[in-house]
Amino acid sequence: GENVEQHPSTLSVQEGDSAVIKCTYSDSASNYFPWYKQELGKRPQLIIDIRSNVGEKKDQRIAVTLNKTAKHFSLHITETQPEDSAVYFCAASGFNTNAGKSTFGDGTTLTVKP
Amino acid sequence: DVKVTQSSRYLVKRTGEKVFLECVQDMDHENMFWYRQDPGLGLRLIYFSYDVKMKEKGDIPEGYSVSREKKERFSLILESASTNQTSMYLCASSSSGTNREKLFFGSGTQLSVL
């Protein structure tokens, strides 16, 4: 089955700096790569996603890049703000089942210091 | 807005008890999932269902079963709870078709087995 590795497990940055979180996956059949943000005590929520036919996608201060050959993808957050502090999960999934089940990384705890 | 509701936010049970975790979604989603979240281990898939009365094992199904008698409701059952099942349990749902990988999560049930 799919295996997703996520690094780093914790990340601390100063407000205004950039943050980068990286994930690698093992199954070349995976073709959908979402990122979820989970604030303390709250549910995970999808913040950005990318499909394998696209190399990069941006949404305001966040962007995701995908390298299919190397089987890795990254989340980039620019001009970080304290409200970006949360746990971020990457995931990978494919069309191997009707439900398109996702395999998650272990999560990165991002702390943005004011 | 998609709403995924889990019946209990916190639950305390004793070893050997039969435990039912309930999840209801109101968006007519075909797919429903149960994940377990433990610190440093990310989200691990227990079971999922892509149709009423259909179920498939995820990555860690041992000690769990599920029931999906109605489209909107997906129940996770711990036949005989054990202390190693103390965890945060997250339910999620997704639609079918091209967006089936986009997960909408419930707020979670923190289960403690004593």
What does this structure look like?
The complex is a heterodimer of chains A (114) and B (114). Chain A is mainly β. Chain A has no helices and 11 strands. In chain A, the strands form 2 sheets. In chain A, strands 2, 4, 5, 9, 10 and 11 form a 6-stranded mixed beta sheet that branches. A 5-stranded antiparallel beta sheet of chain A has the order 1-3-8-7-6, with no helix packed on it. In chain A, strand 7 and strand 8 form a beta hairpin. The mean pLDDT of chain B is 93. Chain B is mainly beta and 114 residues long. Chains A and B meet through strand 4, strand 5 and strand 10 of A and strand 4 and strand 5 of B.
In short:
By secondary structure, chain A is mainly beta. In chain A, about 0% of the residues lie in helices and about 55% in strands. Chain A has no helices and eleven strands.
Helix/strand layout:
The complex is a heterodimer of chains A (114) and B (114).
Chain A: E1 4-7, E2 10-14, E3 19-25, E4 32-38, E5 45-51, E6 56-59, E7 62-67, E8 72-77, E9 86-93, E10 102-104, E11 108-113
Chain B: E1 4-6, E2 10-13, E3 19-25, E4 31-38, E5 42-49, E6 56-57, E7 64-70, E8 73-78, E9 87-94, E10 104-105, E11 109-113
Parallel strand pairs in B: 2-11
Antiparallel strand pairs in B: 1-3, 3-8, 4-5, 4-9, 5-6, 7-8, 9-10, 9-11
Name the overall outline of chain B: globular
Question: Compute the gyration radius of chain A: what is it?
Answer: 14 Å
Strand content of chain B: over 45%
The helix/strand class of chain A is mainly beta
Number of distinct helices of chain A: 0
Biggest sheet descriptor of chain A: 6 strands, mixed
Tell me the number of strands of chain B.
Answer: 11
Mean pLDDT of chain B: 93
User: Poorly predicted ranges of chain A (pLDDT <50, ≥5 residues)?
Assistant: none
Sheet bearing the most strands of chain B, described?
Answer: 7 strands, mixed
Principal-axes shape call of chain A: globular
How many DSSP-defined strands of chain A?
11
Distance between the termini of chain A: 41 Å
Helix-strand string of chain A: EEEEEEEEEEE
Level of helix content of chain A?
Answer: under 10%
